[in-house]
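Weekly structure sync - notes
Attendees: PM, LS, DV (DV joined late)
Agenda: review two folding runs queued last week.

Item 1: First target. Sequence and structure tokens pasted below for the record.
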Amino acid sequence: MKRYLEQFALSLAQHLDKIYGKSFDELGIDVGLDSNRQIQLYEVNWRPGVPPSFYYEIDVARNLIRYAIYLAAQKRR
């Protein structure tokens, strides 16, 4: 099964390289197996994982909340 999935992933990556005319450096390939042990493709992501901008958004939100708490404390005084 491991070899089967590896071959599928490599074949899919080569196929996508041909379609888009460039080589992708990493792909996130989400698959499942049906009751006949056939691969069912769910999605393919280029540069998988959490986008780096997500962490910046968390930092911005965290700082805004801290600032709102600070302003609320100042208004109570």
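Item 2: Second target, run right after the first with the same settings.
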Amino acid sequence: MTATAIPSRCDVLIIGSGPAGLFAADQLHQAGVTDVVIVEKGQPMTARICPDGSGCDCRTCDVLEGEGGAGSFSDGKITLSPTRGTHGAALFTPEQERLLRIVDATVRRFVPDGVDYPPTKTLTAMDGHDDAGLTFESYPLLHIGSDGVRLFGQRYSAHLRELGITMLTGVQATALTIHHGRARGATMVDRRSRVPQRIEAGAVIVASGMMGTPWLEEQLTAAGVQLATGPADIGIRVETTAAALEPFIGQFYDFKVRHTSPAGIALRSFCVNGNGYVVNEYHRSLGIRGVNGHSFLDRGSGQSNLAILATIDTTFTDDPCAYVRTLATAINAAAGGYPITQPLSQFLPDLTTAPAQDVHPSNPKTRPGRLNDVLPPPLYSAFASYLRALGQILPPVLGCDTTIYAPEIKYYNYRVPIDPDTWASNDIADLFVVGNAAGYTASLSAAALSGIIAGRAAATRTVATR
């Protein structure tokens, strides 16, 4: 294989080509900083595929690694709210929130065929069911589908290349270069030739996303940075018929419905996929296989799915991030290293269920198992409480053949101490950590917003030092 030509230096080095990295590069170029290099260890978008079949053993998981980032295999929900998809409601200032218009306009520029969902105050189906213990919220939403979000990543990356930004795929950052408390570049390895090479840079923006989590934690800890744990989410994904969820989805596509279990665990719906599919995500760097949901604008499955996430915070355990990783690993171990799939009639055997709804599990890359035996009792009871409440309003959801998948995992990065005005490291000069890598965000919109902020700050620093 031909090795990629890696430049020896640049003004700004960006590690990762997800939305945080792409939007940062765009802002740098608009500010006149054109000597920018993006390195991405995964493949170009056109080469990113999830093979058909029941296996989930790819050495590199193209679902999570590559041009456009992990979000390129998401459902394509552009949540135009800075706090949706984060646990930091006060993370962004009102002035920063207004930068979401850039995210909105950029997505529409490259994928004009999205569907808008304006916020709505209530879900009509919930009227008269206050005793169910569910609350609803919405936000401005643009849905471009899994097909649209992949197209966005491909087109946006191509646009940046046309502007002269160097984007190298198949090139992995193996070590940050830090001298006297300042980031000075990184060592790279071309994954085809395995030849290491160092890139010197005036500033480094780390946008390594979920798959870069262990690597970044190792690099920063070795440099003396004290990482912090924050809330982490673990959940189940529920697959039922499209008709069962239509009363909610038909009014607001990605409904957010919250519930508090009798034991005080906060739960919420997440990543709703109308007429969609359940898919695997191989978090190879963590050794965890989780599940997620997709849907497309141009085709439907006749089934819908949603995640139910439980928030694990420090009132539950001292280290939520470690807890979620350990529990997700245990769920995989109970199914031979795969996500578990289980019919609702087995997951909640004491529940009076609706008749079978003709649900056909859409994800073959799972294995049968008993979540009842793996989930800690407080979490099992919490998910059961949510399902009962949801079924009180939407009875078909409790069909005996509704399918439960696990684990669904979110927000498991340790938090990097940053200046929220710039997303610059508090400990290492000329280092910016953005998107999921920083441990504060887990949505395309919020990651992109962090990239915009960091890109502008890095541009100001670069121009000032010329």
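Discussion on item 2: The first helix runs from residue 19 to 30.
Action: LS to circulate a short write-up before next sync.
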